[in-house]
Write a structure and sequence with these properties.
4 strands, four-stranded mixed beta sheet, single chain, 3 helices, 79 residues, 24% strand, alpha+beta
């Protein structure tokens, strides 16, 4: 079953752009389904889950917030 996530980032976020490049460079990584939300526009969602940093992802099955690029890559590698 494919994991589903909400991916939170911002247009000004360099680590968010770097994460995209890192994920593209990992060919064996499972491709989860996700929806991108800009934290500048998704304030209610950001507050609901207590997201304080970007990039972050929310696992829709568990509600867990995964923050920082290394943690996101680790989470997706284990999905």
């Amino acid at each position: 079953m494919t994991q589903k996530y909400i991916r939170l980032g911002a247009s000004w976020c360099n680590p968010c752009r770097q994460l995209e490049q890192q994920l593209a460079g990992l060919p064996n990584l499972p491709q989860p389904e996700y929806v991108d939300i800009d934290t500048e526009r998704g304030k209610q969602l950001r507050e609901q889950y207590g997201v304080r940093t970007v990039p972050s992802m929310i696992n829709l099955e568990t509600g867990q917030v995964i923050s920082s690029a290394p943690n996101i890559i680790r989470e997706l590698s284990n999905a």
